[in-house]
Design brief:
The complex is a heterodimer. By secondary structure, chain A is mostly helical. Chain A has 13 helices and no strands. In chain B, strand 6 and strand 7 form a beta hairpin. The two termini of chain B are 27 Å apart. Chain B has a single domain, classed as Cytochrome-c3 Hydrogenase, chain B (Orthogonal Bundle), CATH 1.10.645. In chain B, the strands form three sheets. A three-stranded antiparallel sheet of chain B has the order 1-2-3. Chain B is an alpha+beta fold. Chain B is built from 16 helices and eight strands. Classes of the chains: A mainly alpha, B alpha+beta. The interface between A and B is medium-sized, with 30 and 31 residues.
């Protein structure tokens, strides 16, 4: 039993780890690898959150005919570090009316829910923390943890505005998970796998093989449905009701300050990365190059350079989607609660089901 | 029954009502005075059932400064800076209304050039005020960018004001009998340039916000104010016109040089929803910007040379008597009622502020709306708090 298990890990590791140290047993190396790469991804996610917040503010500045932060470092590049230091140094306030246990735990729950997804993302050819066979299901499951955290924050703050924000958020995210689930189902049907690496592997060989162009125009619709629902899932404008400033002050994080607020903040930006990454993997070819070959692949198949290039493509696509979200945020007004639900239940859900059905029929034909 | 008793019974009634609500199932929630959409310091106590607003109790008075009492202790000239603070977004218009009141009381003839300059300033300030409304309305619906766009054009108006009187918010520019300074060199060219820019930008605003489908969904059919209710509550200004009532003091009770100007009075038409909804209130203001630009162009063409101030002594004693004059402000009719006993100070000065009446109708029409709607509904009335509390 144990032997089989080790054997399984060994084969799994051999397939999934890009490189090993000579002489080290591969299963041990696998565990070390998880820790090393997990640490790198954790740091990277935080760094991304910081950089994205800076980028968002700069972009907002350009969209609004003003400068944006430009004082700390060249072009204000280190603004996010200054912000981080400010948040760390701030007093950690817990309101008297708060449920202290929930109030303290909530940011971590949200953060875990967001970062857990990173474990299953394929960053490049055989580059990832793990390579789960049920990767998509795992992502779908663990990202739901964010809702729990938000409700905990909303209820635990002991503030009526927070409670309203938490309630809105719960209703919104749960509703929008359904169209997302149906889109996932569509893609699983097409690729007949839930393994993220496998999904990306199927999209090799240039732009035309990306899943978004597989069954035109249905997969394109699926992509749009996913993107809209994902924006609702990460509470971005026009679906930013849980933190609607003009109505609910700050929504569920009204009462949070200092580092606890920073956790929510980073989770929000990391979440943007996560949903964009999923969209990239499912529709835009993941780490596959838009060309039929890797430019850096002159040193043989899947050498380190090719892995780096794949990572570059992956990040480029993700950042483009993140930019798209920022662009929309600074352009559009916000939906009302009932309108938001109507968009989900009356538009996205029927469309996604119809899409599933039509693609299914196409596949049979 | 004397007035004090009357007041205490009202307070008792209100407090027992509030107690009754606390015991019930509904949630009482304080929106303000520290809230992003209070437009100053207004406390709205909302009785909510989930997201639905059952009742609204506006609590005013956080900004009470006793302006009317202060007026009794100052002479007529000295009160002018205080009128800036009645409606800080339409300070020129407030100056103008007060100056007109005192001029009528003392029968002062204002030079023609001064009248033109006053109208010019009043219309510029109206545009500035409506531009800010455009921005806050965007904020209310969750779009942040319109605020900055509105501010960009408002900045040009403030630059014009700064050129003229050195101030950017509280101008104290219009004086009893005229204006404090003549227009500086280059003002007319800069104002013309602004008119050109504004006419272009208003199209951009419509593209960005007015006809945005999400924006229309949020604004149309929200907070419908029927014309009879509006008249019953003394609602004035763009809010009244949005309900389809064609009432503008600049036309109906012309003052200054408005009779010589050619402009239209935009009224609400229910283009995307019902007549008198929040979108109409928004759109009437947008159209008023265009009309104000028209007036400004005419003023710039017609403005005559001459004196800018009638001779009014530093020791100024209007004859005993009383007078009420009203003017069309960006927010509605601003009226001054002055009782003079022939001394240097007014015996009594009463300000009829448009925002007060406009706010008073909000609880009536906000029953059964959602919290998000209520924010929009209140925002679409474009109230200014110092005017309400005075």
């Amino acid at each position: 039993m144990l032997k089989e298990y080790i054997e399984a890990i060994k084969t799994f590791s051999e397939q999934n780890i890009p490189f090993t140290i000579k002489g080290a047993p591969v299963e041990l190396w696998y565990i070390v690898w998880i820790f090393i790469f997990g640490g790198v991804v954790l740091g990277g996610a935080m760094l991304f959150a910081g950089l994205a917040s800076f980028a968002e503010r700069r972009f907002a500045g350009f969209f609004q005919c003003r400068l944006g932060p430009n004082r700390v470092g060249p072009e204000g590049f280190f603004q996010f570090i200054a912000d981080g230091i400010k948040l760390v140094l701030k007093e950690d306030l817990i309101p008297a009316a708060a449920d202290k246990m929930l109030f303290r735990a909530a940011p971590y729950v949200v953060f875990i829910g967001t970062l857990g997804v990173f474990a299953a993302l394929p960053f490049s050819k055989s580059l990832g923390i793990t390579n789960l066979n049920l990767g998509l299901l795992y992502i779908f499951a663990i990202s739901s943890l964010v809702i729990v955290g938000i409700i905990m924050a909303g209820w635990g703050s002991g503030n009526k505005w927070s409670l309203l924000g938490g309630m809105r958020s719960a209703a919104q995210i749960i509703s929008y998970e359904i169209p997302i689930g149906v889109v996932f189902l569509t893609m699983i049907m097409i690729t007949s796998t839930m393994n993220m690496q496998e999904i990306v592997n199927q999209q090799g060989g240039g732009l035309v093989n990306w899943l978004v162009f597989r069954y035109p125009p249905f997969t394109l619709f699926a992509f749009l449905i996913y993107f809209i629902a994902a924006m609702a899932e990460v509470n971005r404008t026009p679906f930013d009701l849980p933190e609607a400033e003009s109505e609910l002050v700050g929504g569920f994080h009204t009462e949070y300050s200092g580092m606890r607020f920073a956790f929510f903040f980073m989770a929000e930006y990391a979440n943007m990365f996560v949903v964009s990454a999923i969209a990239t993997v499912l529709f835009l070819g993941g780490w596959q190059s838009p060309l039929p070959f890797f430019i850096l692949n002159i040193f043989g198949d899947y050498s380190i350079l090719a892995i780096i290039e794949g990572f570059g493509w992956f990040i480029t696509k993700v950042l483009f989607l993140v930019f798209l979200m920022m662009w929309l945020r600074w352009t559009l007004p916000r939906y009302r609660v009932d309108q938001l639900m109507a968009v989900c239940w009356k538009v996205l859900l029927p469309l996604s089901f119809a899409n599933l059905l039509l693609i299914g029929i196409w596949m049979i034909l | 029954m004397n007035q004090n008793q009357d007041y205490t019974t009202i307070v008792k009634k209100a407090s027992s009502r509030i107690e009754e609500i606390i015991i019930g199932e509904e949630m009482l929630i304080n929106m303000g005075p520290q809230h992003p959409s209070t437009h100053g310091v207004l406390n709205k106590v909302l009785k909510t059932d989930g997201e639905i607003v059952d009742e609204v109790f506006p609590q005013i008075g956080y900004l009470h400064r006793g302006l009317e009492k202060i007026a009794e202790k100052l002479n007529y000239h000295q009160f002018m800076p205080y009128t800036d603070r009645i409606d800080y977004l339409g300070a020129m218009n407030c100056n103008l209304a007060y100056a007109m009141t005192v001029e009528k009381l003392a029968n002062i003839e204002v030079p023609k050039r001064a009248e033109y300059i006053r109208v010019l300033m009043a219309e510029l300030n109206r545009i500035a005020s409506h531009l800010l409304f455009f921005g806050t309305m965007g904020m209310e619906t969750g779009a942040f960018t319109p605020l900055l766009y509105g501010f960009r054009e408002r900045e040009q108006i403030l630059d014009l004001f700064e050129m003229t009187c050195g101030q950017r918010l509280t101008y104290n520019y219009i004086r009893i009998g005229g204006c404090s300074d003549d227009l500086p060199n280059g003002f007319i060219e800069k104002a013309r340039e602004f008119c050109n820019v504004m006419e272009k930008k208003i199209k951009e605003y419509h593209q960005l916000l007015s006809y945005n489908q999400i924006f229309i969904n949020r604004m149309a059919k929200i907070g419908v104010l029927p014309p009879d209710l509006a008249i019953a509550f003394g609602v004035t200004g763009p809010n009244l016109r949005a309900s389809g009532v064609n009432w503008d003091l600049r036309k109906n009770e012309p003052y200054s040089v408005y009779p010589e100007m050619d402009f239209a009075i935009p009224v609400g038409t229910g283009k995307v929803g019902t007549i008198g909804d929040s979108w109409d209130r928004y759109f009437v203001r947008m159209q008023e910007i265009e009309q104000s630009v028209r007036i400004i162009r005419q003023v710039l063409d017609k403005i005559p040379a001459g004196e800018i101030r009638a001779k009014v002594g530093r020791v100024f004693k209007p004859p005993a008597g009383e007078v009420y004059v009203r003017a069309e402000n960006p927010r509605g009719e601003l009226g001054f009622y002055i009782v003079s006993d022939g001394s240097q100070n007014p015996y009594r000065l009463k300000i009829r502020a448009p925002s007060f009446s406009n706010l008073s109708v909000v609880p009536e029409i906000s029953r059964g709306t959602m919290i998000a709607d209520f924010v929009i509904l209140l925002g679409s009335f474009d109230i200014v708090l110092p005017e309400i509390d005075r």
